[in-house]
Amino acid sequence: MAERIYRFPEVTALYLMSGAYDLQVVIRANSLQDVASFVSDKLSPLDSVLSTTTHFKLKTYKHDGILFTPQTEDKRLNITP
User: How far apart are the C-alpha atoms of 25 and 10, rounded to whole Å?
Assistant: First the structure.
């Protein structure tokens, strides 16, 4: 099943998961319509797919150790002896 899914060109990552979901499929699409089409036309029709849940990444705060949030500047006065 995993091989069938990761061969789709839209799929950028595929993970075997523990917990409520068996697989996490990460795709790249240009629009919500493209995401919907991928799920309804390509993913859902596969025989072993019983259900899908779609989540969207809204904001990245940290990825691979790199922070994506603006660092706050320390505006306290320096204390010198």
Answer: 10
State the amino acid at position 29 in one-letter form. Answer: A
Domains, the chain, ordered by start = 2-67 (3.30.70.920)
Where residue 32 falls among pLDDT bands split at 50, 70, 90?
very high
Helix (H, G, I), strand (E, B) or coil at 70: coil
Please enumerate in sequence order all residues whose Cβ is within 8 A of that of 8, keeping only pairs 6 or more positions apart, or say none: 27, 38, 42, 43
Provide DSSP, 2-60: HHHHHTSTTEEEEEE-SSS-SEEEEE--SSHHHHHHIIIIIITTSTT------------
Tokens of 71: 């660092």
